[in-house]
Amino acid sequence: MSHSFACLLNHAVFSTKDRAPFVAGECRERLFPYLGGIARELGAKALTVGGAADHVHLLLSMPPTMCAADALRDLKANSSRWVHDTWPDRRDFAWQTGYGVFSVSESTRDAVARYIQEQETHHRRMTFQEEFIALLKRHGIPYDERYIWA
User: Fold this and answer.
1) Residue 40 carries which DSSP code?
2) d(CA 75, CA 66)
3) Which of 57, 66, 93, 113 is geometrically suited to a Cys-Cys bond with 48, CB 3.0 to 4.6 A?
4) CA pair distance 134, 107, nearest whole angstrom
5) CA distance 105 to 36
6) 18-49, pLDDT tens digit by residue?
7) DSSP strand E in the chain: where?
8) Total domains, the chain
9) How far, in Å, CA of 137 to CA of 31, rounded?
């Protein structure tokens, strides 16, 4: 085969430090597109960005040369710097240290995008912590709850 082909879709999730409700109002309206711009600068595409006041979800299409850990590090660092520059009074804003990233098949792409777009409604029934544990279980990722939120 003379060419390489890839469809690498990832659902990334990360929260604010201590799940502080910093991602609301004008911050949310401007942050979600900004995250999409960072992804584009990295060579990825943010197909969908959504979340709630204390966390963000992204559906990312990534090139095969991109490592998810590097992409998430850069997304979080650059967006955090941007929040501090844009709103100097939010110097306490920070992302949690870790994240979740889950592979997505093309056949479930639309369902994951809808899930991300409906975060406001979703979190009327479930906390971020409950949602994150459910994602870990759904993807068969072992965890010890004592260390997830540290």
Assistant:
1) H
2) 13
3) 113
4) 20
5) 20
6) 999 999 999 999 999 999 999 999 999 999 99
7) 8-15, 45-52, 55-62, 100-104
8) 1
9) 29
User: Domain range for residue 135?
Assistant: 8-143
124: CATH: 3.30.70.1290
Residue-wise burial string across 114-141, b where 16 or more C-beta atoms lie within 10 A, e elsewhere: ebbeebeeebeeeebeebbeebbeeeee
DSSP label of 134: H
The beta strand positions in 17-136, using DSSP E, are 45-52, 55-62, 100-104
Partnered with residue 102 across adjacent β-strands are 11
The residue whose two tokens read 């967006």 is 79
In a domain, 1, yes or no: no
The residues near 15 (Cβ < 8 Å, ≥ 6 apart) are 54, 55, 56, 95, 96, 128, 132
Supply the pTM of this predicted model: 0.94
